[in-house]
Amino acid sequence: MKINFNDGPLIAGVLSSLDKDIPLAGDIIEVRLDQAGHPPDWLERCRAIESRGKPVLLTIRLRQEGGEWPTDDENRLKKYQDGLEALSAVDIELMSAHCATIAKQAQTLGKVCIVSHHDFEKTPPLTELESIIDRAQENGAIAKVAAMIRSEEDADILRQLLERKRARPICVIGMGAAWKQTRASFPKLGSCLTYGYLDKPTAPGQWSAAELVRQLRT
Fold first, then answer.
1. Helix, strand, coil: what percent of the chain each, to 5?
2. Total Cβ atoms within 10 A of residue 196
């Protein structure tokens, strides 16, 4: 299933469990397999979501970047490869040893690969974030940067990332309960994706997907 970023920012509904039958708000469904317990039939359950008309973004987030998958192992790589064959998109960390492999496979298959970087402590300097985005996009991927906002200066750094014209879209996420409105304002400035939870929040200051749909589509 093709994902089109040309029609404005997309809303990703984040699903942390594959055992619940809940409304699938949003344009894309991010399945957090690291949190869902990776049941044996996880791929069939993801396919079932796509059969309902929602592209699936497979994420198996490493513990070092806020997830629950313990190590960057071959088992994780295999799940990503299986996901790319069957689903619409994947998200893998820039720091992963498997990042280039997955990004190249996605490009070969014509699938979307999001290469992400998360900083739960701070917002790095603008030059550092620009370098992260450039490296993330080297293999034709969409770069995603998520950073903790602690001041208006931090928020402004993330806004500046969205001012630069680029060959490919980027996703910029501001974290922190006091700055949750950036989940709606950054997409209006050019972030190609914003994330809202479907069953439980997965990051600080995250709206529900239904609330993001209300704010951005009404």
1. 40, 20, 40
2. 25
Average pLDDT, the chain: 94
Q: What is the pLDDT of residues 46-88, one digit of tens each?
A: 999 999 999 999 999 999 999 999 999 999 999 999 999 999 9
The answer for residues whose C-beta is within 8 angstroms of residue 24's C-beta and 6 or more apart is 13, 15, 49, 52, 54, 198
pLDDT tens for 174-202 read 999 999 999 999 999 999 999 999 998 88
Which residues are marked as active site? Answer: 118, 144
pLDDT of residue 188: 94
195: its two tokens: 């994330």
Integer Cα distance of 3 and 184 in angstroms:
20
Cβ–Cβ under 8 Å, residues 116 and 144: yes
The phi-psi region of residue 188 (left if phi > 0; otherwise alpha if psi is between -120 and 50; otherwise beta) is alpha
Phi, psi of 21 (to 5 degrees): -100, 95
Model pLDDT for residues 130-159, shown as the tens digit of each residue: 999 999 998 888 999 999 999 999 999 999
Class of domain 10-212: alpha beta
Give the phi and the psi of residue 205 in degrees, each rounded to 5: 80, 20
Q: How far apart are CA 194 and CA 19, in angstroms?
A: 24
The pairing of strands 142-148 and 89-93 is unpaired
